[in-house]
Design goal:
four-stranded mixed sheet; Immunoglobulin-like; mainly beta; single chain
Length: 118
């Protein structure tokens, strides 16, 4: 095999073995992976006794976003309760801070509101 042909083979092998820009070396990915989570749906000032439907949005590599509300694990601080669908019920006293959190694949995002006067 001539030296020119040998170099061509070497370059082809390197092209196959080196990671493509934006990928993690040694990790085979079949699609976008989760980078972060944002939560929306709570107003800045919320009302005690009211239930607000929160939405969790997954922000993925490759600029993809997905609604992950139904597959996230939901939690709340002591001033609210939340069901598995992201429905946040406010239970705090006036001026207390409410924090609703969605978690998936080790990533979390949250949104907060302040309970308004009665």
């Amino acid at each position: 095999m001539g030296s020119g042909r040998r170099l061509t083979v070497i370059f082809l092998l390197l092209a196959l073995l080196l990671p493509v820009s934006g990928q993690i070396p040694g990790v085979i990915s079949s699609g976008p992976y989760l980078l972060s989570i944002s939560v929306s749906g709570l107003p800045a000032t919320c009302t005690n006794g009211t239930t607000y439907p929160a939405t969790a949005t997954g922000h993925y590599s490759q600029s993809a976003t997905r609604n992950i509300t139904s597959v996230s694990a939901w939690s709340c601080n002591a001033n609210c309760s939340v069901d598995s669908s992201g429905n946040v019920t406010i239970t705090g006293s006036p001026s207390s801070n409410v924090v609703a959190t969605a978690t998936l694949q080790g990533k979390s995002g949250n949104q907060s509101c302040t309970v308004g006067p009665l």
